[in-house]
Description:
Helix content is 29%, strand content 22%. It is α/β, with parallel strands linked by helices. α1 (14-22) packs parallel to α2 (46-58), α2 packs across α14 (403-422) and α15 (454-463) runs parallel beside α22.
Amino acid sequence: MNNKIELLAPAGGPAQLKAAVQSGADAVYLGAGSFSARAGADNFDLDELKKAVDYCHAYNVKVHCALNTLIKESELPAAIETAKDINLCGADAIIIQDIGLAAHLGKILPDIELHASTQMTVTSLEGVRYLEEHGFDRVVLARELSEDEIEKIVKGAKAEIEVFVHGAICMCYSGQCLMSSILGGRSGNRGRCAQPCRLYYELLENGRQCGGAYVLSPKDMALIERLRELKRIGVASLKIEGRLKSPEYVSAVTGIYRKYLDDTINVSDADMDELKNAFSRSGFTDGYFTGKLGKAMMSHGNPANNSGSRYTAEAKERASGRTVRRIPISMFASLAEGDVLRVTAYDSDGNCVCCEGEAAAEKAYNRPLTAERLSAQLSKLGAAIFCAEDIIAEVDDGITIPVKDINEVRRRVCDELMRTRAKRKEKRVLYTAPAYGSGTNPSELYLTAEVRTAEQGMAVLAAGGIRRIYAPEKTAAELLKYAQDTEIVTKTADIFLPEDPKTEAVSVSSPAAALYYGDKAQYGDFRLNIFNSLTAAEFGSMKCVTLSPELNIHELAELTSHLEGVEAEIIGYGHLPLMIMKNCPVKAMGYCGHGKQIFSLRDRKNMEFKLMCGDGCRAILLNSKPIFTADIIESIEKSKINCIRLNFTVEKSEQCGKIVDVYRRAINGEEIEPMEGNTFTRGHLKRGVM
């Protein structure tokens, strides 16, 4: 059993950081600079980060810095400089989502660990192995995994494995949600999620309301009662969510998890109440870990914190900024007549410092200084982070020195020991320029299509003008019988599942799939979150990559100006998938579509979002309006995009044929009118995201 499992606590600001350390955290994670996935947290500037690292390292607490947003092409220089600053400050690890940025940092910062963010949606051993090969030291798994799935990964992984154990969970797989982005321009992948999942929705069956609730609002996770299993599995780190939470919250939750990590006893009712009182949405869930999905995981009646945010006196004390957690040290002091006071302090980690006073000892005419009195004075460490467990003092008879001299030596020896414990190891920076490409890709624009059913695929083939069709495994096998000049590509699972494609080429949505299907020609789907040319280059062995739908025309052009060796595709038509969910919201409401398209959600603005059944009974939420770009083909062509994908989901076969015809005519230079009124969207092609 691994008893050295790390407890990793959130630090949204300096006060939360101190609360985490004082409550027993082994490590903290925080945002530094402008590229943290919690833009609303206080985060740390360079000076604050240096102080934070010193404070934490004095307690042997590690500091992990989140640089875990997707990085636009124009932001790469600033993101790289931020990483250098983090390295300079002595932080222990950088948490990253953007795989292109990670690749470059691996070349220039050899002495700092790289941790793969949960935003990378790693759900399998294949995903971990891909990241191991690309220089990651630790992988933060997706929250949606069961005990058995985590155990399989840990047993086969070389990298350290970190899992979330407490706090908010998203309805959508992290890193795959576009709902806040598309509806309000605030991207979860950029740390600015507006949480539309916490709003009220009506559930519609065949267009008729059959229920209403906070359909997309899960309870918070709590695995406090699963620590034995996590220890047995051997995960390296247990992560508490909450960089937007208060110091009192951090103190309460960290303190409870510290207690039960140190002593694997059953969780008391009082301690479970303390967790609930700190923050909860109608209780907690361990549904992903136990595999018990459904209604019990959801806070259908109230999406907000209904705990009252009540904290114990102990939690408040640890969050107050005062020193509660002290480091035991030993001291040896000696004072001889005519000489100065000498004090040596040392800790259990082998650190040792020695300081001298200024006043020489003189003969005492009234009250001589004894070894007992000197020890007592030295033990008064006050606000220092140390407590003196053992003090040995040797004092010549009949002498004394001023008390202020003793106090000054005591202060200096504590300061020096703190500096010694916090001392940063020098970390190298290797000055290697980013491997930007030359932007020499051919700029011929052509059409591709994605379909779900054979009927849609046949309609697309009949319409003509489509160079490539992506389709699920069974549909692709069927279309192979009829395709002539059109390439058929198997679209593998959105969230990795091993399949047996019959086509020569596959579309992959994750690093796991890229590794698993390494013997086939590959196309990269938009779920790879390609935001910049460095990330595109990491998938440069693929024939084509679909760029993130969160980029606007200008940003796409910046990216393609550096692209070479791999074609660039965008989604130019279709109801964009906003969420992909393991816990089906329809089933959680007591219904099931049995794979048929009959359910949807309606929001407060009367917009309707269709729900589809995906791979492995995963639910996919579609945008209410389709992207339409046939009338702006010329501006897309100027951005040097190679191909436009038509994404068919809920469209009937005859609709597919008509849409292909419109886009084929647009590609051939015919002027196309936009769709009617408020029935379509440009996605982010015109506005982009924050």
